Amino acid sequence: MVGKMFELSIIVNGEKWQVKASGTETLLEVLRKDLALTGTKSNCLEGECGVCAVLVNGRTVNSCILLAVQCEGAEITTIEGMATDEGLHALQSAFLDHGAVQCGYCIPGMIMTAAGFLKENPSPTPDEIREGICGTLCRCTGYKKIVEAVHHASQNMGVK
Ligand code: FES
Ligand code: FES
Predict the structure, then answer these.
(1) What is the pLDDT of residue 141?
(2) I need a labelling partner for 147 at 20 to 30 A (CA). Which of 28, 97, 103, 104 fits?
């Protein structure tokens, strides 16, 4: 049985979209399937790993556990919205410069988590960064280079 569909207005990476979603569809599904924004990754689907993190109205959320219908009118930023015509976001550059990217699967979520964290704490210590990103799991590596990259980005601001 096809459930009721809801029409939503959302702003994604600065662009306005009208989308239809069922009452059980998540923001992650809408981003990946309807908008083809596949930079946001899908893994546990239980809010545990953080790879699906995006910013909703400036705050980091795990998009696999947020219903799309809860996002009416929201401003959403995904990894695709981080770089601009002027170049990569400071976090993206820092991750590359510090060798913090291995397979890359967790990196979009890691960067969106760090972006939300730095909005609230623009000058964190490495320990604060470790705590701030602890909800995002990287299966490739320790977190040393990731923490260094976030720390470097915070010091060089330009972080939006
Ligand atoms: S896929 Fe969303 S938290 Fe793991
Ligand atoms: S870089 Fe591979 S899971 Fe984090």
Answers:
(1) 76
(2) 28
125-130 LR contacts (CB < 8 Å, sep 24+): 126/151, 129/154
**pLDDT tens digits along 41-95:** 999 999 999 999 999 999 999 999 999 999 999 999 999 999 999 999 999 999 9
Q: Which residues does a 6 A CB cutoff place in the pocket of ligand 1?
A: 42-45, 47-52, 62, 64
Ligand 2 geometric centre to CA of 129 (Å)? 17
In the structure encoding, which two tokens stand for residue 61, read together?
């959320």
CA 32 to centroid of ligand 1, rounded, Å: 13
Q: Which residues lie below 8 Å from residue 76, measured CB to CB, with a gap of 6+?
A: 10, 11, 12, 13, 27, 31, 54, 55, 56
Of all atoms in ligand 2, which is nearest to the CA of residue 102?
Answer: 1
Nearest ligand 1 atom to the CA of 42 is 1
How many angstroms separate the CA atoms of 20 and 9, rounded? 9
